[in-house]
Amino acid sequence: MGGGIIRIPFGTMTITERSKQLVIEALDRGRVSSGRYVREFEKKFAELVGAREAVAVSTGTDADALALAVLYDLGASRGDEVIIPALSFVATGNAVLQAGFTPVFVDVERETLNIDPSKIEAAITPKTRAIMPVHLMGKPAEMDSIKAIAVRHKLLVIEDAAEAHGAVYKGKNAGTLCDMGAFSLYVAHIISTVEGGIITTDNESYAGVLRSLRSHGRACKCESCVLNTASAFCAKRFQFGENADIRFVFERVGFSSKMNELEAAVGLGNLDIYNEILNKRRENLYYLLDKFKAFSQYFMTLSKEPYEEIGPHALPMIIREGSGFTRSDLTAYLEKNGIDTRTLFNSIPTQCQGFAYLGHKMGDFPNAEYIGEQGIHIGVHQDIGRRECDYILDVIEKFISGHTLSKKQ
Ligand SMILES: Cc1ncc(COP(=O)(O)O)c(C=O)c1O
Asked: Whose CA is closest to atom 8 on ligand 1?
């Protein structure tokens, strides 16, 4: 390929004209805290994913934490255990702690980047309450095996679907595969509200608890009260006495995690072009995955099974042992040629300092640690197309041939 450097940013965000118009309308109306746009966004997101309910919150981390905090309504105690993959964005581990539980880590598979189902049962104890698989890089976790284990041990399964917008497993969308699904709506994710998160579920009583949790644990689960405008029509108001100020009755330990109207306005405009964004990103990802077969001697990446669609979040690449180059060689070359890179996260228990107090040591999670040392990911977003994908492939090919040449000399 001739020509100069092409800039390939890691992420992008498309703000539509409708988003801008809705933001202005909300500002003009003077109602910017959670209201009708948030409700509309929740309804549309639930429809899109195919879940009965969706509850919007401030971040994807809160979506994870609030979904986990529902466990208290089901009899869990503080300090109980939640099983999560050792490799994820650190938010998965943080959310477990923020919800008041203890994270129990299970190593991942190098090929899928996801929790290794064959290692889950050994991590279950009498204190285990839930499994939270992560669909890392949009690759669906092995849900049939995970669900079978959960049923055997009477555990809830909550999907961390932060990166899995558009992912499909055996005909069902990520976020509808188990008890609850938690999505991030942060910039660079396929549907974004700038900052934001949303929990999907078919269980209406979980949704009620989530609405209470996002608003400090308020007693009333009816929408208007949760939105901080105690309504005269609220049945619960009367349950607590005619004069009770329902806004200050708290049933559970809660969070302050409501989405606001401006964020929902951005999200509503984004939903209008969801299919366009998804298709473009999917085309980019699948094209790159296919072409990457030529580099399989040097890199591992994802492969798509016939029963799934990978949510096109980003392209992961893990340098194989014996490749002859280091990750910093690779990232320096890609960055020099305009391609943004991100590392492929860390082993949370052994490569994230905040978790050192749990007492794990390097070597406990070999696959997560290997990916933490040798993995990167790059963008496949809607602002790039075939030309940029070919450019990425060309740069990688040149990098590899440069290295094999220098080794021969
Ligand atoms: C796997 C995973 N879980 C949770 C989160 C947290 O989302 P947020 O950044 O919106 O809090 C992220 C963020 O991208 C993520 O990648």
From this structure: 60
Q: Tell me the one-letter amino acid at 254.
A: G
- Closest-CA residue, ligand 1 atom 7, reads 60
Helix 386-408 and helix 274-291: axis angle, to 10°?
Answer: 20
User: Domains plus CATH for the chain?
Assistant: 17-271 (3.40.640.10), 274-408 (3.90.1150.10)
Helix, coil or strand: residue 296: coil
Q: Whose CA is nearest to atom 16 of ligand 1?
A: 89
- Which residues make beta-bridge pairs with 108? 115
**In the structure, which protein residues have their CB atom closer than 6 angstroms to any atom of ligand 1?**
59-61, 64, 88-89, 91-92, 134, 160, 162-163, 184, 186, 197
Query: In 3-state terms, the chain is what percent helix, strand and coil (to 5)?
Result: 45, 15, 40
Residue 117 Cα to chain centre, angstroms: 19
Each residue's pLDDT tens digit in the chain (409 positions)? Answer: 557 999 999 999 889 999 999 999 999 999 899 999 999 999 999 999 999 999 999 999 999 999 999 999 999 999 999 999 999 999 999 999 999 999 999 999 999 999 999 999 999 999 999 999 999 999 999 999 999 999 999 999 999 999 999 999 999 999 999 999 999 999 989 999 999 999 999 999 999 999 999 999 987 555 544 434 334 444 454 455 656 666 778 889 999 999 999 999 999 999 999 999 999 999 999 999 999 999 999 999 999 999 999 999 999 999 999 999 999 999 999 999 999 999 999 999 999 999 999 999 999 999 999 999 999 999 999 999 999 999 999 999 999 998 876 666 5
Nearest alpha carbon, ligand 1 atom 10: 60
> Quick one: tokens of 101?
């539980």
